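Exercise 3.2. Students should predict the tertiary structure of the chain below and write it as structure tokens, then compare their answer with the key that follows.

Predict this chain's 3D structure.
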Amino acid sequence: MRAVRDHDVRWQQGRAFGMTYYISEEVDELLKEAYTLFFSENGLNPTAFPSLRKFETEVVAMTAALLGGDPSACSGEVVGNITTGGTESLLMAVKTARDWARQHKPEAREPEMVLPLSAHPAFDKAGEYFGVRVIHTPLREDYRADVGAMRAAITPNTILMAASAPAYPHGVVDPIHELAEVAQEHDLLFHTDACVGGFMLPFVRKLGYPVPDFDFSVTGVTSMSADLHKFGYAAKPASVVLYRDAELRRHQMFVYTDWPGGIYPSPTMTGSRAGGPVAAAWALMNFLGEEGYLHIAGAVMETTKYIQAGIAAIPGIRVISDPEMSVFAIGPSEEDGLDVYELADELSLRGWHFDRQHFPASLHVTVSYIHQAIREEFLRDLVECAEIVRRPSLRKSINRAVISVANAAARLLPEKWMSAAMDKASALLGGSGSGLPSRMAPMYGLIGSLPNRGDLKEFVLDLIDGINRYSEQ
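Answer key:
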């Protein structure tokens, strides 16, 4: 197992700008000890394990207090639950909105939710699971949600609006205050997805950085999500979903009373609930406290500003928009912009991992505490890789030609012919048919530019299917 792990990204050395959040060996040992202490306990039944009930309710209360959930400022006590991650938190928020609407908006027979295009795909997953139609609206030029567009998208079937603090792709906080007012005007629920920023933005604000209102201090916000395992630095998987009052949360819960095995209540998606992540989150939040989180946030923001300044000094790339915290995107400059997918490939050869994004083409960056130690090394490699990408090469010319031909074919060929061609695309772009190609630039260039999104969905499903098949390698 240790040998196989050697092929993973070196996240302990800060080589991944996302997915992992690490502070120190001391904190890791604390998390492991707390996690394994409750390794076998099951949160399914709080009467059997009142310890886990104590941990969960106290973590939820601390999170609510952090996110403006002071009972004196709200209509009642903010309540919530720990989930297995941001996706489950968003699933629960959408399920709650659907069931709330059945009681309070019976005219919405085909329920819809209105989201900016940058909202996390977990909303779309929830819509598919729970039968809620998703209405996506375009973004402003600064990549934030467009209030006018979201207002215009509301119909008699709308039950929920949502926005992000910040949105994962570009790290910008949507205009939550204005959007929540629109939701109130139309008697809708409003969810702030603070899965990324919930345990960072409050401390960023205390440090003096400008942060717009986004939490329960905004009257129209009825639910929120914040991931403990991101900038809460807790063990995976752990997130918190919060509701402005207990009456609303009742719509999240499931109860079945006619089973011979007894009454079956379940507050969240899962039945059995791992005790380890709950205990580890409680231990870490009490260990760090406000002072610890504030120190970490300060170091992270200083590192973020340093890296962003370094990016600004490199011709051909830029930081997109003006993100509020330590999440942002690297895109091509408006003049003489570099191919950022080629840039990501070159960085990958040096051991750095970046998520590729499109609309526009960009690389996702999440700066966390560990990156303060490697910022100089990263910027040196970024400068050298940018210089390599600037140089012309036969391989890059061939890749551009393949993408141009594919785009032309998509416009000219019958749909069935194009679908058949897409079946062979993985091999043409360097793939082996059993996973992703070693260089991703041509694949992302194709995915980001072809008009037939249905074929692209099938193409990606083929890739996922290949990755998740057994191999003797």
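Discussion points: Confidence is low (pLDDT under 50) at residues 429-434. The chain has three domains: 25-285, 289-390, 405-467.
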